[in-house]
């Protein structure tokens, strides 16, 4: 199954990577709800997150936890919110969103506009945190 995310994993489509290992990839959302909005995806394509085997799903959440700690070191916020929606791209993914209020994780909010250099700097800062 070829998806937008599988094309990102293969390098066909560029992204602003913040963390990666042999099984998972984390990168900045290009239409962020909040500054520091990161997507965590498995490199093995699976459409529905709850179709993942338990060990893989657990490992993805542990990977996401490490990424969330990095985001929190760089982006001023009270907490990192977690959302799993799964309708936008047919590839399992977790949204990590810096939050100061409940409305910060509202996907109906207007998306932030950031320049490529802003994305690059933020991705580098999170990656190095």
Key terms for this structure?
129 residues, 5 strands, HIT family, subunit A, alpha+beta, globular
Q: How does this structure look, described?
A:
The chain is an alpha+beta fold. The protein has one domain: HIT-like (HIT family, subunit A). 32% of the residues lie in helices and 19% in strands. α2 (54-74) crosses α3 (116-128). The longest helix has 21 residues, at 54-74. The chain is globular. The protein starts with a helix and ends with a helix.
Précis, in short:
The chain is an alpha+beta fold and 129 residues long. The chain has helices at 4-10, 54-74, 116-128, and strands spanning 17-20, 24-28, 38-42, 79-83, 94-99.
Shape by Cα distribution: globular
CATH architecture: 2-Layer Sandwich
- DSSP summary, beta strand count: 5
CATH H-level homologous superfamily name: HIT-like
How are the strands of the largest sheet arranged?
1-2-3-5-4
N-to-C span: 34 Å
Strand content: 15-25%
H-E order: HEEEHEEH
Determine the structural class based on helices, strands and strand pairing. alpha+beta
Number of domains: 1
Mean pLDDT: 95
SSE map:
Blueprint: H1 4-10, E1 17-20, E2 24-28, E3 38-42, H2 54-74, E4 79-83, E5 94-99, H3 116-128
Antiparallel strand pairs: 1-2, 2-3, 3-5, 4-5
